[in-house]
Predict the structure.
Amino acid sequence: MKPEERSEYLEEYAEDKKKGIPFFPDAVFKDVLVGLTVLIVLIGFAYFGGAPLEERADPSDADYTPRPEWYFLWLFQLLKYFPGNLEFVGVILLPALGFAILFAMPYLDRTRLRHFRSRTWVMGSMGVAVAAMGFLTVQSMIDIPLPANVTGEINAAALFTEHCSVCHGTAIEIHEGTNLHETIAGGHEGMPAFAATLSIDEIDALSGFLVSPQGGAIFTANCAECHDSGDLAAVSPFELQAALSQGTGYAAHADLDIPEWEEVVFGQDRTALLNFLLAPDGQRLYGLYCSECHGPAIDWDGDRDQLEVLIREGGNHREMTQWRDVLPDSEITLLALYVVEPSSSPDGEPLFAQHCADCHGVRVPTAVDIETAVEIIADGMSHRSMPLWGDVLTEEQLTALTTYTLDASRGTPTLIGQALFGRLCSTCHGDFGEGGPHPSDPTNIIAPISTAIYLETRDDATIRAIISKGPSEGMAPFLESEGGPLTSDEIDALVAFIRAWEDDPPVEFPPEIEQGPVAGGSRQVFSTFCAQCHGEDGAGGADLVGPSLTSDTFQNAYSDEELFASIDRGHSATSMIAWGDVLTAGQVEGLVEHIRSLVSRTIVYSRDIEPIFQASCSACHGSLGGWDSSSMQLVIESGDSGPAVIPGDPEGSNLVRSLRGTGMQTMPPAGELSDVQIDLIVEWITGGATEEVTIGGEQAGGSAYTWTVDVQPILAASCGACHGSSGGWDAATYDSTINSGNGGPAVSPGNADGSSLAQRLLGNGALMPPGSALSDDQIQIIIDWINNGAAR
Amino acid sequence: MIEKIDLWFEERMGWRPIWKALALRNIPKVTWAYTLGSATLLVMVNQILTGILLTIYYVPSPQDAYNSVSFITNEITAGWLIRGLHHWGASAMVILAGLHMIRVVVHGAYKFPREVTWFTGLGLLAVTMAFGFTGYLLPWDQKAYWATTVGTRMLEVVPVIGPWLLRFARGGEELSAVTLTRFYGMHIWVLPALLMLLIGIHMFLVVRIGISAPPKASETEEEGPELEVEA
Ligand code: HEM
Ligand code: HEM
C-alpha cells in the first residue's frame, strides 16, 4: 500500500466510524448474545457429552490405536502420505510453510482492496487450504490405509494393517542392519513393544513381510492357496529347501498339480521368498537351529569371517582325535557303551568327562549302535556334525545368524545383567526380584518385580526407563547421563536379565499351599513353610528370599499384633502370602510366639523400660503417692492396690491391666502406649522384672519340642479320632498321652526306643495310624520330644 | 443511586475517561461475524477460570493424575461441569479462533493498519493449539498417553535436531513422569503467560485502532484507473 492509499484508508475509516454505532451498548449486546449462546452450547456438551476419561494410561498396551485430538488429525493424516525420509516434509515443512504464508499475508496481499470479491486469489487459496484440512481430517477419521503391497490373504498384511499402519501409514522404510524382530518385540521411540500382543511367529511373519515385500508377493502368487505364511515360518529350512528343489518329487507335494518350483522360483525370487518366510533374525535362527546342540551360546574367540565360514560350511569343522591311538580298546568300548546308553555304562562317565567333555560339553553325542559308536570314536577325524547352513539359508539370514552368534559368544546380556543385578539391585529387590522390606525402612515393603503380572504389564522400554531415570520415588536413576553408575548397554543387559524371569519365574510358592488347611504345630509349620524363605533358624540368608526374622530391627519394628496381621494377611505385594488362608488362627498365633522365641533378647530395665515410664508416666506418677514410676523397685512395689507388678505374671500385674485398658482405667490417660512398648513391658515382667531380663532364645531343634506346641497338633489331627477317653491309649491330654496305653504308659520320657508310641509310629508292631504313617518329619518331632524328656 | 456510586468511584479512581475510551467509542456498522472474536475471548476466559479450578484437585504425577481427574469428574460437586466446560471449551476455542481468523481474512482485516493485530492473532492461534496439545496429556488416560506418544514422535522427523527435540519434549526417551510435569508446567504457567501477553496486545490494538469496517463491494469503482493497474 502506498502512503497516499494509507491516509486515504484512514480518512475513509474515520468517516465509517462517525456514521457507525456506539460500541456500548449496541455492539456489546450482540457480543453478549453470541457469548451466551456459546456458553449454553458448551454447558450442553458438558452435560450430555460429559468429560470423557478412558482407562488409565497403560504403556504396555500395544493394541491401543493412538489418536490425537481432532484438531491435529489433519497433520496426523498428512504423515501417512509422506513415508520414510519424507515424513519431515509432511509433518514439519508443510505446516511451517503454511504458517509462514499466514505470517506474510499482509505482505503477500498488499493492495488496498479489501472486499473478498476483488481478492479472488486470497479467497481461493484459503478455500483450498480449509478444504484440504477438512478433507484430511475426515480421511483420517474413516481411513485406515491398507499397505501398498497387500496382494492377497497374507496374514502378515493383516497384522500390518491392524498394528502398524495407524502410525506408519502404508509402508515402512527399514534401515539396513535393523533388527526388526527386536524392534517389533521390544518397541522403540514411542512405538509400543508388541511382544505382549503378538506371538513370536506373528512377529516373525511381520518382519519377513517388511523385509521382503517381494517374497510376500511370490508367496501370495504361488503358495498362499494352500499355505498360511505363519505355518511355514517355523518349518525347518531343509524342508523348505527340499520342497522347493524337488518339485512334485517332494512327498507332501506329490499329488498336487504344481509346477517344478526350481523353474518358477529361483535366484533372487527364491531368496526373497525364504527371507519372507523366515525373517533374517539372528536370535530366532539361532534359537531354532543352533541352540539345540550349542546351548544358549557357543564359545567363540575367533573373528567374524571365520565364524561365518564355519556356519556356512558346517559339517567338518572340528577334527576329532583318532582315539584308537590314545585309548585302549576297552576304554573305547566303555565310551561307546556310554554314548549309546549312558545309564548302561557308569564307568564311561568319568572317561567321557576326562577325554570328551572339552569339546562335547555335557551333551553326550548319540549313536545308533555300539559298532557305529566304536567306529566313530576309534577313527576320530572329522565326523559330520553340523549341517551346511550355507546351502539352506539366504545370505541375509546367514549374516544375521553370524552376528547374533558372535554377540552371544561374547557373553549373553543376561549373564552381564545377572552380575549387575546382584551387585546393584538385589540389596533392595532381593536376589530374585522378590522384594521385601526396605533395608533401611523395614515398614516399607518393596513389591516384587519378578512376578508374571509385573513383567507382563511392563515392556522393556518401560523397565529401561524406570532403571535409567528412576521411578517417581524410592530409587535413584541408574543411567550415566542421569547421574547414575550404568551405561546404556549395561541397562539393556539388566533389562534382558529381568525379562528372562518371565520364562523362568524365580519366585514360587510352596506347592503345599495348594492343599488348603494344614495341620501341625508352630515349629513344624515354621519349618515347612516359613523356613523356605526365612531359613530354618529364621535368620534369612544370602540365598533366601525372605528377610531375617531374628534381626533386632525386625523384632523391634513389629508388635505381636502386627506380626500376627502380617502372617495372617500377608503382604499383598510380596511372596509372603496370606497364611491365614491355610493356617488356623491358633497356628498363626503359635508362629508369632515361635518367631519371638527365635531370638534371645535381653531387656535392660534402665535402657529399655525406664525411658518409657519417664516419657509417658513420670509426669503424674512421682512420689506423690499411688504408683511411683521413678525407680525400678518402686515401679514393682508401689501402687494403690498392692504392688503394680508381679514378676513372672504379667496378666496378674495391675500395671499391665492399666496399660492394656483391661483394668479400672486405661493408662496413660492421654493416649495408650504403642503395642511394641506394651509388649516390651509384658516381656520384662514375664522374664522376672529384674534389671536384666533375658527372653526367648530356644534354639530350633529337638530339645525344645513341647507337647502343647508341637506334639498335640499332630496327635489331634491324626490320632484323636480313635484314641479318645474310651479306653486304651488316650491322646487327649498331656498326661493321658504319656501315661495311658494298653500295655502300660505309651511314652517313657527320655527313651523313644522304649516308648510304644514312637515304635508304633515307626511301624514296629502294628503301624499307627493304620495304613498311613505320619510323615517322617512328624515322627521325628515326636521321637525328639520323647528323647528330650517329653516336655509339656 | 447509580450516579452516586459512579461519582464516588470517579472521584477516587478517575475511571470515566477509561470507560469512555473503552465503551462509549463509536465503531463502524459491523455484522454478526464480528462477534467471533469476542466469543473466542469468552471461551478463553472460560478456559482460564475452569482451568484454575481444575488445578485445585489435579495432581501432575503418573500415579495420581488419572485418579485425580477421575475424582474431579465423579466425586467433586459440579466437577463434571468444570471439566466438561474445560474439555469442550478447548475444542470450541480452536473452532472459534479458526472462524474468527477466516472472518479476518475474508474482510482483509490483516491489512494496514492492523498488521500487528494479525501477527499477535497468529501467536494466539499457536498458543491455543499448544494449550490443546499439552492439556490433552494431563488426564493420563489411554488416549492421552498414546496421542502424546505419536504427537511428540512427529518432532523426531526434523533433520539433525529431531532426536534432541523429541527428548526435549518428552524429558527423556520415553513418555514419563517428566513429560507429564513438563506438559503441566507449559499448560499452567508458560502458555497462560504467553496468552496474557498476546491477548493484551491484541485487545489493546482492537480498541486503539478500532475495528475494521466491512469492506464495500464498490471499492474498485470508486478509485482511479491507475490504482487498478496495481491491483
Ligand atoms: C485466542 C484467540 C483470539 C482472540 C480471543 C481474539 C480476539 C479478538 C477480538 C475480540 C477482536 C475484535 C474484533 C472481532 O471480534 O472480530 C479481534 C480482532 C482481530 N483479530 Fe483476533 N482473536 C484471536 C485470535 C486471532 C487470530 C488467530 C487471528 C489471525 C491470525 C486474529 C486476528 C485478528 C485481527 C486481524 C483483528 C482485527 C480485525 C478487524 O479489525 O476487523 N485474531 N480479535
Ligand atoms: C487456551 C486455553 C486452554 C486450552 C485450549 C486448554 C486445553 C486443555 C485440554 C484439551 C485439556 C484436556 C482436558 C480433557 O481432555 O479432559 C486440558 C486439561 C487441563 N487444563 Fe487446560 N486449557 C487451557 C487453559 C488452561 C488454563 C489457563 C489452566 C489453568 C491455569 C488449565 C488447566 C488445565 C488442567 C489442570 C487440566 C487437566 C484436567 C483435566 O484434564 O480435566 N488449562 N486443557
About this structure: Confidence is low (pLDDT under 50) at residues 145-154, 507-516, 699-703 of chain A. Residues 70-141 of chain A form one domain.
